[in-house]
Amino acid sequence: MALKTEHMVLNMGPQHPSTHGVLRLELELEGELIKKVVPHIGYLHRCFEKHAEAMQYNQIIPYTDRMDYLASMYNNFGYVIAVEKLLGIEVPERVQYIRVIMGELQRIASHLVALGTYGLDIGAFTPFLYLFRDREKILTLFEMTCGARLLYNYMWVGGLSHDIHPDFQRMTKEFVNYFKPTIVELDNLLSYNKIFIERTANIGILPIDTAINYGVTGPMLRGSGIKFDLRKDDPYSIYDRFDFDIPVGKGIYGTVGDCWDRYYVRVREMEQSLRIIEQAIDNIPEGDVQSAIPKRIKPPKGTVYTRVENPRGELGYFIISDGNTNPFRVKVRAPSFVNLEVMGELCKGHLVADVIAILGSVDIVLGEVDR
């Protein structure tokens, strides 16, 4: 005779350490099996989109930093591209190269946090220390360039707030040479660790059709085997000049699209970011990084939508201009918010302990979810 169990509702968060922020997950359980998961957001209240209506275009850039605060450079990147398209500004070549380098360094730094904290969620403490050690080296490069380590306000409309330091190119190349072997070390320590694989393989499988229907993008989509990356499929800035690959999930136990695949794609993406940086760092042209910055930003009436491949997926900015110095509306397509919606599908039929592994594999930042 089957054991009868009652349904129970369990709240995970909003202060749970593995929610990585103020997220509350409402779990409907039958015993320890997940029947339903409902994410409850709205505890952080960044209010970015409302703030943008009261700010001039250039004043909005520091607010973009505070959405995905682990990928602030890329938030800047996406926003300034949108405003430049609205204005019809041609950005100097030097600015384009520096932006790409900073963007890829930011991608690596963001993935280091994602992978380190993910290992911590599963129970591996040492990789967390190693990866945060490596992230500090990137933050040192950022600090040397613009004086900040988390929120940068670095990419301005038409240019950059600061030119790179005379030692930046040398130190970046030193970091690239240092970091390549540490990715191999990470694979040996965590990626192919038997316990880690047992906790993540065949857990939270995201089929291709479900991913597409939910609008999932970034490493989550590529983890399901879809080779889609805006840097290749809808190139922006100067990404079409560089040679790099798009890693996809391979299914270590035969099933593609599980937690391990999403983790694995982020590890391999760091290698490709290093390839882009290597190609760009020695080819930065001379020039003034502030020569194209407009003294006053007052775009004509119209709308614009641009999208970039930030570390979590497609980050889109939709701007409506009514011809004034303030935008009429700024709408953000935040990848963390969109990707989080699929949690209910990923968790069905799994155990409570698996929720931790699944949520960590989504890699959300709550500032972007509740923007």
Q: Could you give a quick summary of the protein structure above?
A:
The protein has 371 residues and is an alpha+beta fold.
Features:
371 residues; alpha+beta; Cytochrome-c3 Hydrogenase, chain B; three-stranded antiparallel beta sheet; 13% strand
Corresponding CATH superfamily: Cytochrome-c3 Hydrogenase, chain B
Give start-end ranges of low-pLDDT stretches.
Answer: none
Strand-residue proportion: 5-15%
Instruction: Assign the CATH architecture.
Output: Orthogonal Bundle
Number of strands: 8
Instruction: Give the overall form.
Output: globular
| Rg, alpha carbons | 21 Å
The number of helical runs is 15
Return the CATH class. Answer: Mainly Alpha
Strand count, sense and barrel status of the largest sheet are: 3 strands, antiparallel
Instruction: Give the number of domains.
Output: 1
CATH topology: Cytochrome-c3 Hydrogenase, chain B
* SSE pattern, N- to C-terminal: EEEHHHHHEEHHHHHHEEEHHHH
What do you see in this structure?
- This protein is globular.
- A hairpin with a 7-residue loop joins strand 7 and strand 8.
- The mean pLDDT is 95.
- The chain has helices spanning 48-53, 61-65, 72-87, 93-122, 126-146, 168-191, 194-200, 208-213, 219-223, 230-233, 259-281, 335-340, 343-347, 352-362, 366-369, and strands at residues 7-12, 24-30, 33-40, 155-156, 159-160, 302-310, 313-321, 329-333.
- It has one domain (46-369): Cytochrome-c3 Hydrogenase, chain B (Orthogonal Bundle).
- The chain has 371 residues and is α+β, with helices and mostly antiparallel strands.
- Helix 11 (259-281) runs parallel beside helix 14 (352-362).
- The strands form 3 sheets. It has a 3-stranded antiparallel beta sheet with strand order 1-2-3. A 3-stranded antiparallel beta sheet has the order 6-7-8. The chain has a two-stranded antiparallel sheet with strand order 4-5.
- The protein starts with 6 loop residues before the first strand and ends with a helix.
- The longest helix is centred in the first third of the chain and has 30 residues, at 93-122.
- 47% of the residues lie in helices and 13% in strands.
- It contains 15 helices and 8 strands.
